[in-house]
Amino acid sequence: MIENTPDNWVVIFLNSGDPHYRVLAGWSGGYLSGDSWRMNSGIVEAVDANTHWDFIGTSGSVYRCHKESNCLRLNNAHIWRELQELHGDKVEIMPEETDWLNHDWIIS
């Protein structure tokens, strides 16, 4: 199990071909390293761990996302814009108040 703890994150819904939800995560760089981003393989489960959400991906990776860090920043906003250009209205950011525990992650 690979665990990732991003500095900021959003959940996106991609309704193009194979509809699914993904974490779009960002990390702020420091003096010697630049900003970075990553998108998970697709969410299959969410676990409420009090101060953060653990999003489990189809690959088995876990994104530990602090609840107060749900937002776009410079480190991942450019990827969001590219996704919008590529997929148009078939991609959206899920609202922060989404009930992740009672969410149906599998789209049929």
Task: Summarize, please.
This protein has 108 residues and is mainly beta. The protein has one helix at 74-87; strands spanning 3-4, 8-14, 20-27, 36-39, 43-48, 52-57, 62-66, 91-93. The longest helix has 14 residues, at 74-87.
Descriptive tags:
108 residues; mainly beta; four-stranded mixed β-sheet; four-stranded antiparallel β-sheet; 8 strands; 13% helix; globular
Verbal overview:
With 108 residues, the chain is mainly beta. The chain has one domain (3-102). 13% of the residues lie in helices and 38% in strands. It has one helix and eight strands; from the N terminus they run E-E-E-E-E-E-E-H-E. The chain has one helix at 74-87; strands spanning 3-4, 8-14, 20-27, 36-39, 43-48, 52-57, 62-66, 91-93. Strand 5 (43-48) and strand 6 form a beta hairpin.
Spatial gap, N to C terminus: 26 Å
Strand content: 35-45%
Largest sheet: 4 strands, mixed
Shape: globular
Helix-strand sequence: EEEEEEEHE
Instruction: Quickly count the helices.
Output: 1
Structural class: mainly beta
Strand tally: 8
Whole-number count of domains: 1
- What Rg, in angstroms, do the CA atoms define? 13 Å
Helix content: 10-25%
Overall pLDDT score: 92
